[in-house]
Amino acid sequence: MATATTKCNISFQIYYTSSIPTTGATASFRYKIKDSAGSYTQYDITSVPASGGAISIPNIQVTGEYEYILELSANGVSDTHTGTFNVEKCTPPACEIPVIKNVYLGEGDQIIMDYPVDEVDLYAIEYQIATDDKFTNIVQVRVVMGSDYTPIEFIEMNDGTITNETAYYIRARRHCSKSVVSDWSNVFGFRSGKWGVRRVLEAYCLPANYDLDKKSICQTGGVWKKQVILDTPEPRAGSFIFLIDGITSAIPGNLREFESDNPVGFNQHGIRWIRFEAPDWSIIYNVDPKIGKIIDISSYCES
Fold first, then answer.
1. Which domains does the chain have, with CATH numbers?
2. Are the C-beta atoms of residues 9 and 59 closer than 8 Å to each other?
């Protein structure tokens, strides 16, 4: 009987004898839950070790008793062996713990966290901010999905959770899947600055169900003119767009007020392009409509 090892692998030794030298021996290992109606899972072994050598079968994910069929072929001759093995406990793969390299104040005292992680198999990143290093008084929790992760995180400043000129602590952990989560990272202490209330900005927007039409977005006035607030002092890549209350994200489902005079698709599809009257009226930005985030510069209006 084979013995289960960690991370849902099994290993066993194979013994065989042959009346002639074996060359190019191969084997197949088929297994399934014992007495189940399901089909066998097959693992092909292209390089068979010498008699007494070990073979490892990886990635068996369910505990229980299994039945197997091992077929060995060499020099045109085959032999089959059957048996059972138990998988008593599967240890999930290690989930890398993130490291917070730095937390600092950027433009306008925006709090910025630098926490690079390996994006392979990244399901999500979660971070917490508290007023104490034991995290008994947590004031902000954020979960950033893997598809939205960037190594530089601009901390939410407009929801009232961060008080000016106050000491805080932050930690993060990695979600490698819905069920596999790393331990918490190092705790990084920082002090907030003098973050001010963001002003309302005049902007021109096009929804995601439209193509980029410079004639529309570069005009002055009209149905494309809206008012928004950013979480940064000036428009730039990484800025999140909010409605004029400074709290409601400018994402699909929240943009009914954008369509009070002319329903064109903002509330269903979100903002895809945006231009501001100041500081540079000519810049047209790309926006991720699902999260209301400015991605980069798309193009420019011509004077």
1. 2-87 (2.60.40), 102-191 (2.60.40.10), 201-300 (no CATH)
2. yes
